[in-house]
Amino acid sequence: MKLRQRKQYFRNMKRSDDSEREKRRKRRRLIQELGEQRTPYLSPADPGFQELWDSSYAGLALRQSSALPDGLHERVQSALRTLQRRGCLLRDLVRVRDRDVFTAVSRALVGQPGHTYRYLDTRLFTIPWHCEGEEGQKDEKDKPCCDSDLRDACKALWELNQFFCSDVKQQTNARGVKRSRSDTENSEDTPGEGMCEESVKDRLLEEKQEEEEEEEEDSGQGCSHSSPPSSALPPDVAGLVQFNITLINYMDTTAMTQLKEEPYYGMGKMAVGWHHDENLVPLSPVAVYSYSCPAEPKNEGATEKDGEGQSKEKQKQKQKETETEGEGTSKEELKKEEGEGSEKEEVQKEKACWRVGLKVAWDIHTPGLALPLQSGDCYYMTDDLNRTHQHCVLAGDTARFSSTHRVVQCCTGTLDYIQKRSSEALENLHTDPEKNTKSLKSLLPSTLQHIEDIHNEVEFEWLRQYWFQGRRFARFCSWWTKPMEQMEKDWKEMERMTQLLLAVVEDENTAQENRREMADILLNALTDRQQHRQTWRDRCQSSLAQTLPPEEAPVDRPYWSNEDPDMPLPFDLSEIINRVESLLWRM
């Protein structure tokens, strides 16, 4: 009998591989089309910059530092420095094209209690932000889950989040009114009253159809569940924007030794390459706060030295210009030379600060946009900009924090969701109180398949994701400790349920037709499980993982010896898989 090749692991891997191949093909095509040339890009000093912004990047909005309320900058910047000082910002060991790599950026996730954010086969777990009236700020002993420093830091980030929630809505409404007035002037058929619900749904459908073109598509591993597009109206249309997490990033160019050059426009060194933000609610905005840190002391000396050299050079240049003017050079020519020098100086000044680069996705004909960011500046990506465009972060001369506020998909990425899924699975487990024995309530194939899917999801999308990041969460926040302990107990009960299903499948008294279908479901689940466990073991024991300090090193958990009497099934499932395969061959 030929086993069905419908295993979810291989199906997801094939989809991921196809997507990666398609993206590589597109990149090669664009670079070949470019050849030795570069598509132009515009900065604020270039003519036509504002016109390009308005015509091709209308979803981008810049809010200068002065737009934020008094005192908020100081609190937010102090919070970011606190997270760094306390060791909360860490490089992630992520999965790219079937291999583990460290991110160049150090990160932490702060947000709604119980929320997670998944990218590049890595699930980050929130440090809850602390605010009045917000539940979930305490651990199981009713004690604060973080110390006072971290609580203050997270509260400051929550205050920034509250500002973004209201300000992004105001900016979007203001721009929408401006657009609708312009449309009314240019077309009698356009009502000019903003976007109707039907057009929103059309855009959501378009989002779903073009989902596979995402630059940073979530390459789900095995039993992971891709977040489906939301059927609800996007936050910037339905009402007040509700950012539920912020991803904190820290980048230090002095420590980032292998920065790549931006390949399409020649914009300079990239700290973060071209990408779309992933796993967000369709059409939801993204708000980013940028904080450039003072230069390190060792660099300040170099900067002063360079400044002295530049000053001497300017004196020489001025003296030379004076001599040239004495030789009869016209004032017009001198002004022209001064203008060219000023332009070059302006370009160098722009490249010294951090910038966000934007381009139309998979397009090398529309000029790119490079927007310099002063410390404390914010920018918003609204409408469908994150879907239709890609953005990158261009490195400046100093270190930089960013707080990137997002509306992440909640349908599969919250503690509440996975707890409900676990309860669904355990409902099929019956315990006889008198005999203290356990059995499965239902043997319907659809029910058994559902339970085994949940079993795999709990183990590989939550337990192993949590422990792969070592003990980093428990070091500075205890919020997740108790829920993960309970989740592991529930998972152990699911192991018991798989053992009970195996007993039913191997029972000769089971009806032949039902037995074959149950055996097939069991074999697929066990094969997936065995594959994933080996993958996670390999990742935990990889050479990169071994370079991490003990408190950050991946933990291969849950793990147990095959002879462990407390576990219903062995860790290594190969012998059981062989038994079920042999059983199917005999049927």
UniProtKB/TrEMBL annotation:
Domain of life: Eukaryota
EC primary class: oxidoreductase
Keywords: Cytoplasm, Dioxygenase, Iron, Metal-binding, Nucleus, Oxidoreductase
One Pfam family this sequence matches: FTO_NTD
Biased composition (Basic residues): 1-13
Localization (cell): Cytoplasm; Nucleus speckle
GO terms for MF: broad specificity oxidative DNA demethylase activity; ferrous iron binding; mRNA N6-methyladenosine dioxygenase activity
EC assignment: 1.14.11.53
Domain Alpha-ketoglutarate-dependent dioxygenase FTO catalytic: 46-410
Subunit structure comment from the entry: Monomer. May also exist as homodimer.
Family in the record: Belongs to the fto family.
Protein name, as recorded: Alpha-ketoglutarate-dependent dioxygenase FTO
Organism: Sinocyclocheilus anshuiensis
